[in-house]
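queue> holo job accepted (flavin-adenine dinucleotide)
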Amino acid sequence: MSQYDYDLFVIGGGSGGVRSARLAGGLGKRVAIAEEYRLGGTCVIRGCVPKKLMVYASQYPEHFEDAAGYGWTVGEARFDWPTFLAAKDREIARLEGLYRKGLEGAGVEIIESRAEITGPNSVRLVRNGKEVTAERIVIAVGGTPNPHAALPGYEYCISSNEAFHLDSLPRSILIAGGGYIAVEFANIFHGLGVETTLIYRGAEILSRFDLDMRRGLHEAMVEKGIRIICQDHIASVSKSAAGNLEVDTLNGTRLVVEQVMLALGRDPNTSGLGLEAAGVKVDERGAIIVDDYSRTNVSSIFALGDVTDRVQLTPVAIHEAMCFIESEFRGKPTKPDHDLIATAVFSQPEIGTVGLSEEAASRKYQELEVYRAQFRPMKATLSGRTEKMIMKLIVNAADRKVVGAHVLGHDAGEMAQLLGITLKAGCTKDDFDRTMAVHPTAAEELVTMYAPSYRIRNGERV
Ligand code: FAD
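queue> job finished
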């Protein structure tokens, strides 16, 4: 009989925690998982899933407009925020139930409480003060929106957490940030009829993405009517007598809006977690430092998902959990593979991407072939929509390997998933060339760009 209460204690019932607990439970281990809020974590409760439902809701006005070109007359359309919220919340509750069922089915004990570490093998349950012990502890507590507490008036601002449950839709919103969460919410609010401004301190939204995608999306958003202010930042927020928020920017612009949303990065949920008690090391941002196998510096404690600040995406947290189980409970040491992660920005239009941007590839390889197509998708012909799609393949000239694939436009996220397989398999441009097109689709452009649009040699376009 083990000297511990559990073989595995998981702190945090989000993407990474639930997968770790469920798999270990399925192997017959004695497992408990503590969750302080709701099972499913950020992704299910206030991240990917509700956000995508909001994206869908916000796309309808364009669908209604496009329908006219195809002969449809659509009557007066109205959007009811409370109806949408209730439907969204029902779906989230359903998913939460499925997470619970999965854990129960694997024999995992679910503890609805905050948990804090008290030592290398012990955890205190805040709900009842009880201390329990475990042979291994997994920390999968995720992250939380940075409140930007140094900003005067930050207390008037919301984060993505609140955006999912506003009492009513504001007439106008200012969103600060240039990352994917800021950009996605700017499109969501605009689509739902909110006058939307995005403010970002950098020169162009979505740093680290391919510049063509960033510029193409920026232009498309402006064309739709979203105001984008780059190279500026909020200096202060105050509340007017009329109840509006008055925002002054560093460059001296004054904006009056009903709501301000800060999307300025996320902090690891490690404060007050008791890491010092066990001697677990964190970096300067509070993220838990782990090795290639998600091991912390304390041999019985592991950390995975957003709290380790590697790649903050749900499939990555899940993958790290699966590798942890292989390594620790199946005797097959397995490192998470963070190379070539396909990803999407659910902006409108979407970005789907995998591999290196042109800029990053040109720093890494001596010579690149860049295949680029910009075109109006077929659906836009009759609808009259002017939005363009951009597709781009970045090829290392030396071995013809496709090292980056980027799509801006409808269904780009769906395409990115499949492009991810081709890049992971190490496909060359010749493999793309000998792949038959699926006609008529927008994606066929990916296999019919036969001649390079330009080359990059030693970082210079030629
Ligand atoms: P989380 O899912 O954050 O789970 C951590 C859990 O731990 C939470 O439930 C929390 O309540 C709990 N917890 C914290 N501290 C304690 C404690 N001491 N005791 C008990 N419980 C605790 N990723 C994508 O791949 N695609 C997307 O489209 C996408 N969209 C996103 C949109 C938004 C608005 C946000 C915020 C995130 C989005 N993400 C997306 C990122 C994704 O949600 C995260 O990468 C993922 O949820 C990380 O999983 P995790 O297990 O590390 O942590």
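queue> The CA atoms of residues 210 and 357 lie 4 Å apart.
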